[in-house]
From TrEMBL, chain A:
The chain crosses the membrane at residues 12-35, 42-60, 66-86, 93-112, 132-149, 180-200, 220-242, 254-273. GO terms for molecular function: branched-chain amino acid transmembrane transporter activity. It is found in: Cell membrane. Its main location: membrane. Keywords: Cell membrane, Membrane, Transmembrane, Transmembrane helix. The keyword Zinc-finger does not apply. It comes from the Bacteria. It comes from Herbaspirillum aquaticum. GO terms for cellular component: plasma membrane. The lineage of its organism: Bacteria, Pseudomonadati, Pseudomonadota, Betaproteobacteria, Burkholderiales. This is Branched-chain amino acid ABC transporter permease. Pfam families: BPD_transp_2.
Length: 291, 314
């Protein structure tokens, strides 16, 4: 009995944090997809916003069932990604980062000025219908799909483009097509995550999906490491829990967040989850034992 | 937090519009707003051009410039122009420290461009949060009587002394920087580094020293922009850096990244575009102007208005 009571209390206090971990993991994976194809896109916060608004409007104003609303929240951002991706993805490196950042601001200003999105007030009273298993299920599907993708022809094409775009093109890889595909997949995942998120935070506003959030998503992925699927998930989990852990630092909580980010970038160039480093570390210990 | 920052950005534009809404007046206001944008973007573009780093802590440095001037005027009763110079030295030193502690180790490791950019995000978060902890989140103002309130009237035109000072200071700093880059041995060395740090090193240029100098100068320019904005709008807050950073990003893309002349013209262009949009179209689109322009230019001519060919990999 004691445990159940403890659990109820724990769940009531921390369920939003736990939900956020799941949603943030999806967001980190969404940017992992584009990074795995060598694209530094910062548009995922905007795609998340488009998904969140789409899903919320469908459940609030059109009484759509949640699954359909969520699906629409994934489809609309992908369509937008398809349209803006064709001209934008010609850009490389920091230019793409800046262009996608610009796209994010344009989306924010549009949402801010539209009537249906509630303007600066955003949407209030989004029904809180996200259950824990929705998140687990969709996160699981995302992980499974991405793991399959990684080992497929498409995944290998992504990797080839990331390593050397010119060489990939010479090998006959359809570089523009695969880049667009990565961009669209990332947008879909971010959109679904946005839909899930909106249905447990109760309110959403245009400023929830701006520059800071774009940067947060990138940070989670880079912090964890982007050489495989586990890194972004570890990164998002740690960074979602950090504010809770650092609660005692009160006013300077964010400063410590920033410091951790700098230290990881300086001392763990491949993120926290770097299989090679971990293997080397374990290997060294194993050798010691043998001796 | 974002809302507050936007409020400031809005004030920055609306402040200039509170007077006579005629075209000549708008142009003067646009010129002073644009000069500040240009000055801010100058440091930003300098770091990208020479170090190849998008320094996202430039907005936070700008913000600290404002506070430095405020403290010097408030606590030590220094005249404003002395405070401006000292604030530039202070922010420049901060830029130097950031370079030594964060950017230099990454340079040594030869990290891809994305990595230092993320590190500077961490720096910006730290500076902003610590400033908020120390100075508080509310807007601070210069003590009364420390900012000259004189103004010149030419017919219907109304120019404040602060506006004149902003335009003059910004232009002097820009011309000096451009002169140094174009005409001096130092400028040639910097341009050589921008072309290829490795080749510059082989030619006997002190690359590491010039990297440090660039970081110092860029941060000092950012701090100067901060002081001018702080004086001009008389509202200083820890969150004033973020909207400025957004504008800075737009400006250096408009002008072509790493292009000093482009940053100047791009800054002025953005100032004019914003003021005229608010005056003649709608104030709803004020925030969209910068990024709408950015988005457009990237689609049409990614190298910026004056940029050359760029196939720099990041």
């Amino acid at each position: 009995m004691g445990f159940m009571e403890w659990w109820d209390g724990f769940w009531a206090t921390y369920n939003t944090v736990i939900f956020s971990i799941g949603v943030n993991a999806m967001l980190a994976l969404s940017i992992y997809v584009t990074l795995s194809c060598g694209l530094l896109s910062l548009a995922n916060a905007a795609f998340m916003g488009i998904g969140a608004y789409t899903a919320s409007l469908l459940t609030m104003q059109f009484d759509m069932p949640f699954p359909i609303a969520l699906a629409a929240g994934g489809v609309l951002p992908s369509l937008v990604a398809l349209v803006i991706g064709i001209p934008t993805l010609r850009l490389s490196g920091v230019y793409l980062a800046m262009a996608t950042l610009g796209f994010g601001e344009v989306v924010r200003v549009i949402v801010l000025n539209l009537e249906i999105t509630g303007g600066p007030m955003g949407l209030n009273g989004v029904p809180p219908i996200t259950e824990w298993w929705h998140i687990v299920l969709l996160l699981g599907v995302t992980i499974y799909a991405l793991a399959r993708l990684r080992r497929s022809k498409t995944g290998r094409a992504f990797e080839a483009i990331k390593e050397d775009e010119v060489a990939a093109r010479l090998m006959g890889v359809n570089v523009a097509g695969y880049k667009l595909l990565a961009f669209v997949i990332g947008a879909a995942i971010a959109g679904v995550a946005g839909g899930l998120n909106a249905h447990f935070t109760f309110t959403i506003g245009p400023n929830n999906y701006g520059f800071e959030n774009a940067v947060d998503i990138l940070t989670m992925a880079v912090f964890g490491g982007t050489s495989n699927l586990i890194g972004p998930m570890i990164g998002s989990t740690i960074l979602s829990l950090l504010p809770e852990v650092l609660r005692h630092f009160k006013d300077f909580r964010l400063a410590i967040n920033g410091l951790i980010l700098i230290l990881v970038v300086l001392y763990l160039p491949k993120g926290i989850w770097d299989p090679r480093r971990i293997r080397a570390f374990l290997g060294r210990n194993a050798e010691k034992k043998v001796k | 937090m974002h809302g507050r920052a936007n409020l400031l950005a809005r004030r920055m534009v609306s402040h200039h519009l509170s007077q006579v809404p005629m075209l000549e007046q708008q142009l003067i206001n646009a010129l002073s707003l644009g000069s500040v944008y240009a000055l801010f973007a100058l440091g930003f573009t300098l770091v990208f051009g020479v170090l190849g780093v998008i320094n996202l802590s430039h907005g936070a440095i700008f913000m600290l410039g404002s506070y430095a001037a405020l403290l010097l005027v408030e606590q030590m009763a220094l005249p404003l122009w002395v405070a401006l110079l000292l604030a530039m030295v202070a922010t420049g030193t901060l830029g130097l420290i950031i370079d030594v502690l964060v950017l230099k180790p990454l340079r040594k490791r030869n990290a891809p461009h994305l990595i230092p950019m993320i590190a500077t995000i961490g720096v910006a978060i730290m500076i902003t949060n610590i400033s908020q902890g120390i100075f508080g989140a509310e807007n601070k103002r210069f003590p009364q009587g420390t900012i000259p309130e004189d103004s010149v009237s030419l017919g219907n035109l109304h120019i404040t002394a602060v506006q004149v000072a902003i335009i003059v200071i910004a232009f002097v700093l820009m011309v000096v920087l451009l002169g140094v880059m174009r005409k001096t041995q130092l400028g040639r060395a910097l341009r050589a580094i921008a072309e290829s740090p490795k080749a510059a090193y082989l030619l006997g240029i002190n690359v590491e020293g010039l990297f440090l100098l660039t970081s110092f100068a860029a941060a000092a320019l950012g701090g100067a922009a901060g002081v001018l904005v702080g004086v001009s709008f008389n509202a200083i807050s820890p969150f004033m850096g973020q909207p400025m950073l957004h504008k800075g990003i737009a400006v250096i893309i408009l002008g072509g990244m790493g292009d000093i002349r482009g940053a100047m013209i791009g800054g002025l262009f953005l100032g004019f575009a914003e003021v005229l949009t608010v005056a003649y179209i709608s104030s709803d689109f004020r925030d969209a102007v910068a990024f709408g322009l950015l988005f457009l230019i990237l689609l049409v001519k990614p190298s910026g208005m004056f940029g050359k060919v760029l196939e720099r990999k990041a």
